Amino acid sequence: MNEPRPNALAVADSVATALADPQPWAAEPPGSGLVWPQSLWAGAAGIALLHIERARSGHGAPATAHAWLEVAASGALTAAPNANLFFGAPALAFATYAAAGTSGRYRRVLERLDDAVTSLTCTRLADAHARIDRGERPEMREFDLIRGLTGLGAYHLSRHPEHPVTRDVLSYLVRLTEPLPAGGELPPWWTTVAPNGEPSSDYPHGHGNLGMSHGIASVLALLSLAVLRNVGVAGAKEAIERICAWTDTWRQHDDAGAWWPGTVTIEQAREQRIDPSQRPRPSWCYGISGTARAQQLAGMALADERRQQSAEEAMLATLRNPAQVDRLPECGLCHGMAGLLHSAWRMAADARTPDLGDELPKLAARLVPQISHSAPQPGLLEGVAGAALALHALGTGAVVSSWDTVLLLA
Questions:
Q1: What b/e readout covers 89-108, taking b as 16+ CB neighbours within 10 angstroms?
Q2: Burial code of 120-140, b = ≥16 C-beta within 10 A, e = fewer?
Q3: Which of 152, 264, 266 is nearest to 219 (CA)?
Q4: Distances 240 to 113, 165, 185, 229, 297 between C-alpha atoms, Å
């Protein structure tokens, strides 16, 4: 386990204190603002995770966590086909389960939410298998973490790893990596859409996505976590190897160490070349914060020490390169410094050398002023609640509620 850092905890406490009262948020009619309460991305459900983690770790009041959870549950709850880990019934189910832990609280609510999420997942799985049966390529929203089955699978693996629906999702992800009948040289997860998830004349042949938020890194991470927890399904390790073989093709090297592109176009695939200028910033969503952690988990799942070590070395080289770290001026988990800090913290806990842990205080020192100078965005993925959670983990040396399952970092 990582060493506790009291200074980081003090900053996390101050952010949580500023976000303790949910009443200003509750006063807004559900859906009248930019986000819905049941959103993990930027809504009350995401902010609730901060107070849930604090309460469960003994650093906050359970009543505050409950108050935020009540706001998250306000308004009409959707389990429509567009519901996902970050929005609707799955998002509220994740936050509620994080609050309950093993206490037995919220049991009846969780049972109803589980039924809704399981039904949604089964519907999405049926559609995905039908698409594969037709030999068609997927859209990102079918399988990705933010909107797709990988996100739903992350919830099921955390909530009930032995449930049949959990194994069904994992089996689908294995099938996702198996060649299509007319797939050619492109991988079977090559999508039909642009990186924004929509069809575009700029991407007439779609693209390959390596990111954690919308790409194959999340599939790699979830399958690897399942294997590490002995919840693997038939073919899981072979699927991990297929993904790794493709990502190895696109592994790049420069003066700042190894890196992976966020996306690959058809032209790049044909030329087998990525321009060095396309190195993504080291964020969680598309950069090394997500891709290196996925590679580290894959190395651990396959007992491949070389892969694990190379992933850790890639992250360490980035952390020691000020020009790369400077590319994250925001504080958030998705695009900013908090995502780099928390990914490095998770990687350091599993690393084969202590060097990664030595860099964590420097990242925290960068994150703290970013929080104080941030625009007033309180949410989880792009706001100060997520940044406070990263500092809380660093400060206490632990994550109690498994909140970072939504990032597939653990």
A1: bbbbbbbbbbbbeeeeebee
A2: bbeebbeebeeebeeeebbbb
A3: 152
A4: 31, 20, 18, 15, 10
Q: Closest Cα to residue 189, out of 198, 199, 179? A: 179
Query: What is the DSSP pairing of strand 252-254 with strand 208-209?
Result: unpaired
Q: How confident is the model at residue 223 (pLDDT cuts 50, 70, 90)?
A: very high
State the DSSP H helix or E strand holding residue 186, giving kind and residue range, or none if neither: none
Tokens of 82: 């567009």
The rounded distance, in Å, linking the Cα atoms of 328 and 125 is: 36
Cα four-point dihedral sign 162, 165, 167, 169: negative
- Report yes or no: 257 and 215 within 8 Å, Cβ to Cβ: no
Report the b/e string of 250-275 with b at 16+ CB within 10 A: bbbeeebbbbbbbbbbeebbeeeebe
What's the alpha-carbon Rg for the chain, to the nearest Å? 20
pLDDT per position as a tens digit, 352-397: 988 999 999 999 999 999 998 766 688 999 999 999 999 999 999 9
Give the burial class of 88: count Cβ atoms within 10 A of its Cβ; 0-12 exposed, 13-18 middle, 19 or more buried: buried
Average pLDDT for 97-126:
96
Residue 290 to residue 278: CA distance in whole angstroms: 16
Taking alpha carbons only, the member of 121, 196, 211 closest to residue 166 is 121
Paired sense of beta strands 263-264 and 257-259, if any: unpaired
The SS3 assignment for 84 reads strand
* Six token digits for residue 118: 């399981």
* 248, two tokens: 């190895």
- pTM for this entry: 0.96
- CA 321 to chain CA centroid, Å, is 24
Write the burial class of residue 185 (CB in 10 Å: 0-12 exposed, 13-18 middle, 19+ buried): exposed
Cα 286–chain centre separation: 11
Dist. CA 377–CA 369, nearest whole Å = 15
Which residue in the block uniquely carries the two structure tokens 């590490």? 228
> How far is Cα of residue 193 from the mean position of the Cα atoms in its chain?
21
